[in-house]
Amino acid sequence: MANLGFVGLGAMGGRIAYRLLQAGHILTGYNRTREKARWLLKAGMRWGESPAAVAQAADIIFSMVADTAALQAITEGPQGLLAGLGPGKIYVDMSTVSPSVSRALAARVAERGAHMLDAPVSGSTVTVEQGRLAIMVGGDQAVFEQVRPVLLDIGPKVNYVGPNGQAVLMKIAINLSLPVQFLAFSEGLLLAEKGGIPRETAFRVWMESVVASPAMQYRAPFVLERPAEALFSVNMMQKDLLLAQELGREVDVPLPSVALANELLTAARALGLGQEDFAVLFDVLAHMAGVPGSPSADQQSSSGRQDKTRATGPEQG
């Protein structure tokens, strides 16, 4: 049992924190909106009044936030996480930010006698709950070995990839393929549909083919019914693609497919879909092709109720 802290208890962070509680660890947590952490408090989590308080209370402190601005908000100032760090403590940031930002933060952590690992994850809220999350880790390898048993309580696949910043680099390199894969899938599905094959039929055949990757296994069904809660929003996906393009310029790697996917994500935002799962790339292409997009969960439910009414007649009270 380890004495842990967790700052940033959103959709992903909260579920990861819950797995740590279920594994029997002591956990002190903080979230900007306490109400969102109420379910974790009921599950046994202790509350820290600030990121600094969480860092002071724990030996290993995790954080997971949306972007660089959010990371600065939880680490800077007298109530920030840095202020609570001291010699021997280990800080594990699971956010996806630029490698240079992560390395600069690691240097500041070291100034306080503590150690930092960057440990972004590959997966979604679904894979966290199923215990299938993959974690990549950058930082001092000896520190990684200290934290590895705790990371294995989060997910079964934990890979060390190099010094500070390298895990975030790896995460960005992986994430850029997600919208590219989905874009190709959407193009193929719409081509089949406009050629006369029903969408559901084309979807089923595609999912049974050799190109149905694990990532598409849980996102491709969103073309038949848009999820009620985004697993990974357009805005978050575009943030990662912009990071990839920035890195591509730094190391002279052309990323043409990323550029195209990024433009279509901008089109999704222009259509008011920025908070939807990035699977609405299909809807952008469907709009361009002149066919209906993916129905929302509410539309599906409404359609089901209408179908039932047509089949059975109005309910009698």
UniProtKB/TrEMBL annotation:
Any Pfam family the entry gives: NAD_binding_2
An annotated Gene Ontology molecular function: oxidoreductase activity
Active site (UniProt): 171
Residue intervals of the 6-phosphogluconate dehydrogenase NADP-binding domain: 4-162
InterPro entries the record matches: 6-PGluconate_DH-like_C_sf, 6PGD_dom2, 6PGDH_NADP-bd, HIBADH-like_NADP-bd, HIBADH-related, HIBADH-related_NP60_sf, NAD(P)-bd_dom_sf
Annotated keywords: NAD, Oxidoreductase
Residue span, 3-hydroxyisobutyrate dehydrogenase-like NAD-binding domain: 165-282
Statement: the UniProt record of this protein carries the keyword Oxidoreductase: yes
Family affiliation: Belongs to the HIBADH-related family.
Protein name in UniProt: 3-hydroxyisobutyrate dehydrogenase
